[in-house]
């Protein structure tokens, strides 16, 4: 298995632009997680899905952030409009629900100028 | 809210030394605890998962213990090698069975050749 796949790996954009981050979980996993990592706050859960359904989005910082999972093999995290304080590394992870061990993708490093 | 703390924040040891990394959490009602490794600019690699009913898990030179009642876990690394240099993160999952993770801030380990 290729593991969790994220794209792009790096994204540089200007304030106000829309940013879309993509994730393909490990085949057969039915839970998917989006995390954000910054120096100041460490790793924070933004939202997670079970069987494509959002379960807890309390970590989503603002209405500018939205996430979708249209099918079991694809998820997006969108920021619109982006702001400099959104600059961070965004990780996607997946797991079997019952097993609960999470496997992380390589992350997307986002820089908003 | 669950708070996870890791001490020390940074640690340097000479090659070959055995070492212990510490993790503490404020709410003992956990489902499991997971240790990860993160290399600079990379994603997280799962090292060990301990279920709440377990006391320890071992993988090669790594041994993780869990004392749920006192809210503590340790990661023991035997015969450290320069390749072990990385940031080590612990994370706990709440007892509700929800599989979101609360992360500590990590311990940055440097093994000096």
**Head-to-tail CA distance between termini of chain A:** 36 Å
Secondary structural class of chain A: mainly beta
Multimer state: heterodimer
Counted beta strands of chain A: 11
Q: What is the beta-strand fraction of chain A?
A: over 45%
Roughly how many Å apart are the termini of chain B?
A: 40 Å
Number of helices of chain B: 0
Largest sheet of chain A: 7 strands, mixed
What is the helix/strand order of chain A?
A: EEEEEEEEEEE
Mean pLDDT of chain A: 93
Helix content of chain B: under 10%
The outline of chain B comes out as globular
Rg of chain B, Cα atoms, Å: 13 Å
| Mean pLDDT rating of chain B | 93
Q: Any low-confidence stretches of chain B, pLDDT <50, length ≥5?
A: none
Proportion of strand residues of chain B:
over 45%
**H/E series of chain B, N to C?**
EEEEEEEEEEE
| Total strand segments of chain B | 11
For the report, how would you describe the main beta sheet of chain B? Answer: 6 strands, mixed
Any idea what the shape of chain A is? globular
Task: Please give a structural write-up.
The complex is a heterodimer of chains A (113) and B (113). Chain A has 113 residues and is mainly β. Chain A contains no helices and 11 strands. Chain A starts with a strand and ends with a strand. The mean pLDDT of chain A is 93. The N and C termini of chain B lie far apart (40 Å). The A-B interface holds A 4, 31, 33, 42-45, 48, 50, 55-56, 91, 93, 95, 97, 100-107, 109 and B 31-32, 34, 36, 41-46, 49, 89, 91, 93, 98-106.
